[in-house]
Design a protein that fits this description.
Layout: E1 2-6, E2 10-15, E3 18-21, H1 37-43, H2 45-52, E4 60-62, E5 78-80, H3 86-92, H4 104-107, E6 110-112, E7 117-118, E8 134-144, H5 153-156, E9 160-171, H6 182-185, E10 192-200, E11 211-216, E12 219-225, H7 233-241, E13 251-253, E14 261-262, E15 266-271, E16 274-280, E17 303-311, E18 314-320, H8 328-339, E19 361-366, E20 375-382, E21 389-390, H9 396-408, E22 417-425, E23 430-439, E24 442-443, E25 461-466, E26 484-486, E27 494-501, E28 503-509, H10 521-526, H11 528-545, H12 551-556, E29 562-567, E30 572-573, E31 579-580, E32 587-593, E33 596-597, H13 603-612, H14 619-623, E34 633-637, E35 640-649, E36 658-666, E37 668-677
Parallel strand pairs: 5-13, 7-10, 18-19, 20-22, 28-29, 32-34
Antiparallel strand pairs: 1-2, 1-10, 2-3, 3-4, 5-6, 8-9, 8-13, 8-14, 9-10, 11-12, 11-15, 15-16, 17-18, 17-37, 19-20, 20-21, 22-23, 23-24, 23-25, 25-36, 26-27, 27-28, 29-32, 30-31, 32-33, 34-35, 35-36
């Protein structure tokens, strides 16, 4: 198979005079690093090769209309073998590299900058104003297909992915005046034309049957049989891998034959069975090709400093703002890779996620951007089955981890005793006051406070959500009413309360959708008709709240609004098999989050329920037990009970209802500090 990188580093299969564009088969995160797409293809070839053989439906483009990039435009490493033909050694004489008859076996290899790779459709850029001599040499480019260390010769060719023509351009030394290091003279940008195509190894005859030729405007300048190489490709692979690990996508330049040629206006190189590469050599230095990264071409995976922390009934990777790129698209790509999304199997096995919305989260902590706050906290919900990262809401559970993280990381100074960190949630532009105990400059994690849904106990963390109303819409009651009628799919009007405190929520009576309110998440998720109806209700509520222009747009945002099913207090059994008595519950509630029934309660959803319970005529108020004097409301969730305190102020018909605060207690535990590879 012949592969090509073209235009903005799209990937195509050569089909006659056309390219079949297979870029849509490559994960979208590589749209941020398009020059890395070919490396992804090489790394994943064992699993995608068969799929690529049946892409006849892929769009085609004429090769004559595209810009051909390097066959692998961003190899991790480029190795070059010097003095690998006896005829070439004879013509260069007693230079330092060949002094005493030394050959490739004695001199070893050298490195060319990976950023020097260019393509058949790109010009060669000679250093502006230079009067030095520039030569070009025809070589075989060997592209490595798998990781290798100490590879024996007899196994070496199994590590080859494919081949391409390669031109090794060199700025010649001038003895006594200019004698720069060889790698420098060979590493100017565009000094390693590679291509035009990458031909997979299975389509190339035995190398000892191939001949390399280099022509200048039709005049033959170089010609050599590959079998005349002093150190064959297999031996080169063995030697290089004894020094450094080979990586998929690495390029090995096989060495130049006799009679290198000066850089002319037009040149072509050909290896029999491998298409030719042609280029032109203008003066001056062109602008970077579209999409080419100025930061170099050696990126593969990168390690990012992070902590993995449980906050309440959620877990998340927590990053310092300073350790992440500023660009949102680059961050999203990092988060998706780190979490293992998207995963059509819903398990996120290739990342830190756990296959549940509560376990697929990222937090970013940085210096405060508003007066009166100690830190900024940005929450990112990483979708499990889609290539999407949502920032539209807050995670209250993970908010419990932010204050202790800020103290432990030295972002906020705290004396021993009880400390309070004011957290500005960037998503909702709201402030959360987090209070917890500190000893010896670190937050205390161990304690005897238990929360339902988490095994074990920990130190209590008090979270005061200050003025939480309007976190998503700007108003506690976005429609101005405690209750609205929603008409969904032509069915009779459904009574719903659309409340926005902490996060927007659509509250409906569980009985109105055929439930009693005590169902466990698996039962709800397994009912496809129910889930479809609940999603339709959620979307209708989103439009009514002003969060989306229409129901189709509402479907693009899975995170908000939540939808919650409420019922009167009743006895039920939790996910852990514990029995909850009706007398211990003030409101039975089930939440859906990111398209799935929540196994506990989203914390911001819980505080919204506590606020809604104090709004007369709301669906929640109708079912909630009358409040006990000064006591928080007890919410019955699939994992057990959660107590939430809220202060709602209603000063009359001419004044909007206002939520002063909502308070919840959580625990947190840092699970590891280190580096996540993404």
């Amino acid at each position: 198979m012949k592969l090509a990188s073209f235009d903005d580093y799209r990937i195509g299969i050569v089909a006659g005079d056309d390219l079949r564009d297979i870029t849509p088969l490559i994960p979208a995160e590589f749209d941020t690093w398009p020059e890395q797409r070919m490396n992804w293809v090489i790394r994943n070839w064992p699993t995608i090769a068969d799929r690529l053989k049946v892409v006849d439906a892929s769009p085609t483009v004429s090769i004559s209309t595209v810009i051909l990039r390097g066959a692998n435009p961003a190899p991790p490493q480029v190795f070059a073998i010097p003095a690998n033909y006896h005829a070439h050694i004879g013509e260069i004489g007693e230079r330092a590299i060949t002094k005493g008859g030394r050959t490739a076996r004695e001199t070893g290899f050298f490195l060319k900058a990976a950023g020097s790779v260019s393509g058949a459709g790109e010009p060669i850029a000679l250093p502006p104003g230079s009067t030095r001599r520039f030569d070009h040499e025809c070589e075989l480019g060997v592209i490595i297909g798998r990781h290798g260390r100490n590879v024996p010769q007899e196994e070496a060719m199994k590590y080859v992915f494919g081949y391409a023509c390669l031109i090794d351009l060199t700025m010649r030394i001038e003895p006594g005046q200019f004698e720069e290091d060889r790698s420098l003279r060979k590493s100017f940008r565009s000094f390693t034309p590679l291509g035009p195509y990458l031909v997979t190894a299975d389509e190339v005859p035995p190398l000892d049957t191939l001949t390399s030729r280099l022509s200048v405007n039709g005049e033959l300048r170089q010609q050599a049989r590959l079998k005349d190489m002093i150190m064959p490709i297999a031996e080169s692979i063995e030697f290089i891998s004894s020094v450094v690990d080979l990586q998929p996508g690495d390029v090995i330049a096989s060495g130049t034959p006799r009679a290198s040629a000066r850089s002319p206006p037009a040149t072509s190189s050909r290896l029999r069975s491998i298409p030719s590469v042609k280029w032109r050599s203008p003066s001056g230095s062109p602008s970077p090709p579209p999409g080419r990264s100025e930061r170099g071409a050696t990126w593969m995976y990168t390690d990012y400093r992070a902590a993995f922390i449980r906050g309440g009934t959620s877990k998340a990777l927590v990053f310092h703002e300073r350790d992440l790129p500023a660009d949102r698209a680059q961050r999203d790509a990092i988060f998706l890779r780190a979490m293992g999304s998207p995963d059509p199997h819903g398990r996120q096995l290739d990342g830190m996620g756990g296959g549940l919305s509560s376990l697929s989260k990222v937090c970013i902590v940085g210096p405060p951007s508003i007066e009166g706050a100690d830190v900024d906290y940005t929450f990112a919900q990483v979708q499990i089955d889609r290539r999407a990262v949502d920032y539209v809401g807050n995670c209250g559970n993970m908010a419990s981890a932010i204050g202790p993280f800020a103290v432990d990381e030295g972002l906020v100074a705290a004396e021993d005793g009880n400390a309070t960190v004011r957290i500005h949630n960037v998503n909702t532009r709201k402030v959360i006051a987090s209070s917890f105990d500190v000893l010896a400059g670190r937050a205390i994690e161990q304690g005897d406070y238990a929360i339902h849904g988490v095994a074990g106990t920990g130190a209590p963390i008090r979270l005061d959500f200050l003025d939480p109303g309007g976190a998503g819409t700007g108003s506690l009651l976005p429609t101005g009413h405690s209750t609205d009628d929603l008409v969904v799919d032509g069915a009779p009007a459904l009574s719903a309360s659309l409340v926005d405190a902490g996060n927007p929520v659509v509250f409906v009576d569980a009985a109105a959708v055929g439930l009693n309110g005590t169902e466990l998440p698996e039962t709800i998720d397994a009912d496809d008709r129910l889930m479809t109806r609940l999603e339709a209700i959620r979307r209708a509520g989103s439009v009514r709240m002003g969060l989306a222009a229409d129901e189709q747009s509402a479907g693009q945002n899975r995170m908000t609004p939540f939808i919650a099913l409420v019922a009167a207090p009743q006895s039920y059994t939790t996910l852990a098999g514990d029995r909850i008595n009706e007398s211990d519950v003030d409101l039975t509630v089930r939440f859906l989050s990111n398209g799935k029934a929540h196994r506990a309660l989203p914390l911001t959803g819980a505080l919204c329920a506590a606020v809604a319970a104090q709004l007369p005529d709301s669906v929640v108020h109708r079912h909630a037990r009358a409040p006990r004097d000064g006591a928080p409301i007890r919410l019955g969730s699939p994992s057990g009970l959660l107590e939430v305190d809220a202060s709602v102020v209603d000063k009359g018909s001419n004044t909007p209802v206002w939520c002063e605060f909502a308070t919840i207690y959580r625990t947190t535990r840092r699970l590891f500090t280190g580096w996540v590879r993404a």
